[in-house]
Structures are given as structure tokens and as C-alpha cells.
TrEMBL record:
<feature type="compositionally biased region" description="Acidic residues">
    <location>
        <begin position="377"/>
        <end position="390"/>
    </location>
</feature>
<feature type="repeat" description="TPR">
    <location>
        <begin position="188"/>
        <end position="221"/>
    </location>
</feature>
<dbReference type="InterPro" id="IPR019734">
    <property type="entry name" value="TPR_rpt"/>
</dbReference>
<keyword id="KW-0802">TPR repeat</keyword>
<protein>
    <recommendedName>
        <fullName>Tetratricopeptide repeat protein</fullName>
    </recommendedName>
</protein>
<feature type="repeat" description="TPR">
    <location>
        <begin position="154"/>
        <end position="187"/>
    </location>
</feature>
<dbReference type="Pfam" id="PF14559">
    <property type="entry name" value="TPR_19"/>
</dbReference>
<feature type="repeat" description="TPR">
    <location>
        <begin position="52"/>
        <end position="85"/>
    </location>
</feature>
<feature type="region of interest" description="Disordered">
    <location>
        <begin position="344"/>
        <end position="408"/>
    </location>
</feature>
<feature type="repeat" description="TPR">
    <location>
        <begin position="86"/>
        <end position="119"/>
    </location>
</feature>
<feature type="repeat" description="TPR">
    <location>
        <begin position="222"/>
        <end position="255"/>
    </location>
</feature>
<dbReference type="InterPro" id="IPR011990">
    <property type="entry name" value="TPR-like_helical_dom_sf"/>
</dbReference>
<feature type="compositionally biased region" description="Acidic residues">
    <location>
        <begin position="356"/>
        <end position="369"/>
    </location>
</feature>
Amino acid sequence: MTETLRGTPDTNTRQEKINAALDAVAYLEQEERFDEVIPVYQDLVGRYPDDVELLFKMATIMLRNGDLREAVAHLRKVLFMKPEHLAARANMGNALLLLGYLEQAKEAFDAVVEAEPNNRNALYGLATILIKMHGHAEAEPYARRLVQEIPGSAAALSLLGDALSAETKAEAATLNYRAALRIDPEYVPALLGMAKLLIIRKKSEEALETLEKAHDLQPRNVEVLIAMGHAYMLDENHSSAVESFELAHACEPDSAAALVHLSIGKRKLGLVYAGVYHAAEAWRLAPGNKQVSNALGAALAAAGATDAARDVLTSKSRGSQFLEATKAAIKEIEYLAEQGYERPVREEKAAPQVSEPDETTEEPVEEEADKSQVDEAQAEETVSEEETADAAESAPAAAEELEEKASS
């Protein structure tokens, strides 16, 4: 009787029921028919809410299915019941990264690496986050440790290439991308990394050739489409560039990076009102982002709204808040763009670069801006896709790789 009260026979019976239910849907899980598998897990968790591993498995399935917020909620329960569950903490990092919460994701991965220094999932996640945060030098050691763990992995080699690419180590980055492509000639992140280096070297023809391979493999990859637009811009093929940026926007409407580049491309074609329209969209998605505000300020200047442009370009010193007159000017230009109107083509004047305002010297910065005539913010013509990608709230390209790495 004592054994029964403690749950030994009942626990065995319960586990048998759980195993039988999961075995019945195992083939669905293998075929990634997660929408049919999740209800089975939900029923089991409802009957056995104290089973930590069952809850963890359900959260992992939700992560693989893209139900990120639900996965996070259940992973929090797992970690509350079992804080030392490293696989759950690593998956929490994956889910938070995909949701765009980089700092929280980094905390999760840091905790995993501290307990298990060679945890591949956490090493990959940390390197990815640091690259997104422009900490390439900090990302490099994690990427190298990952390559040491799995030297035959195209994902690990390509990630190391990404870490090296922004640290004036282009040759080393190229070697890693090539090594990744020898292992998997169709690994898109490596193709994309190679193409970006070619664009930096202004080898647009070779870059486009590489990007076309990547595009054939992943036609809806936003980063690939934006990079193709950059390559076309190098050749001054602005129409093709805009087409690529429009496809990127269509694939991911909430990508501020795609909208910023689309704004710049439209201005290159002389469609300055459309440029303001797209830059304003990007601002609403990522208010306060430096590259987005630069693009919006330059677009407003090109549209002749110099006061509004000046206000936007100096707005960071005021908490990224616009004057009511600026909001009204943007709204008016957006209306004109929606109606298909455009500003008559005129010869653009060269304008001095508007420097990033210093938050500690708010008033002097604004005085200086008032004295300068802003016809166009020149430096913003060459906004890099790496910087503007951070404006997007959702974490992009690593989704498939992270889902594959979700522990089960």
C-alpha cells in the first residue's frame, strides 16, 4: 500500500500511457506534421502537468512549429520546476532569439555555456546574437569553439566566416565560407556571406552569380534579396535593385531593413515621395533606429521638406520624438505617394552630412543643425544591410538552423 501511495506502480502505468500515446504519433512527428502532434501533447500535459520531460517535449515541438511565444511560456514552466534543465534553457534561448529578444536570449545561452562550455546549441546561439549586435570580435571565440566541436559542419564554418567578415579578416572569412560550401554546396548562409564580401569588394557580377544560386535555393530569403539589390545598385541598375527590394518587402512586410533599402532605391529612381512613404513605414516598425531615421531624413530632404528632415535627423537628442509639423509633413507626403503623385524631377544639391547628435549636448547640436541646409543626407545612401537588419524586430535567417538544433 505504501508503494502505491508513493506512486511507483501508478507512475509506471502513467509512463506506459504516455509512451503509447507518443508512439502513436511518432510518424507524424517524423513527417513534421506538428499541428497534428501538438494536440496529443496538450492532452497528455493536461492529464500529467507535473511531468517535466513531457512538458519540455511539447515546448520543443511548438518551437519547431514556429509557435514561439507558446514555446517560451512552457519552457518557463519547465525551468521553474527544474532550473538545471540545460536543454530547456538552450531552447529558451533559441525561441527568444527568433522572437528578436537578443539580450534575454544571450542570458539564456550564457547560463548554458557556463554550465556546459561546449554546448553546441548555446555556442551557435551566442555567436549568432553577438554578430547581430555587431560584436563580431566577441562572437569569434564562440564560433571557433563550435568549429572545434563540429569541424565538418557547414553551419559552424559559415558562422565563423560571418564573425570574421566584419573584423578586417575578409580572407579568413572567405576560406571558411569556401570550406562550408565544399561540405554543402547549397548552404545558403555561406553563399550569402561570400556574396556580401564580393559586394564590399565591388565585384557585382560575381556577387550576383553567387546570389542567384542562393535565390534559386531559397526564393523568399529576405537577406538574399536585399543583397541582390545592393549588387544591382553597384551597377547602377536601380530598377532591378528596386525590384529585389520590393520582393524582400513582399516576403517579409515587417522587415524594416527591406523598407529602408526600398526607400533608397525609389529615391535613386527619382520617386522621392515613395521614398518617404517606405522610410516612414520603416520608422513605425523601428522607431529610434539610427539607420531608419537617416533614411527617413534623407527622403524628406529629397522631397523638399527640409524642416521635417532636420527634425528627424536630430530627433535622437529628444528621445526620437518628432514635432507635430514633422508628422503632418510626413502624412501629407504619404498621402501624395498613395495617390500616385510624385515631386517634379529637379537637380539635387549636394548637402553636408548631418552627424549623429550627441545626447549629452542637446541644444548645441540642434543649433548646428538649424544652421546647416539639409537637401540630402549623403552618408545614408550607403546604408549597410547588416546594420539595418537589426531594425527588424523578428530574428531572421537563423530560423531553420535554430529549429533544427532544438533539443528533443
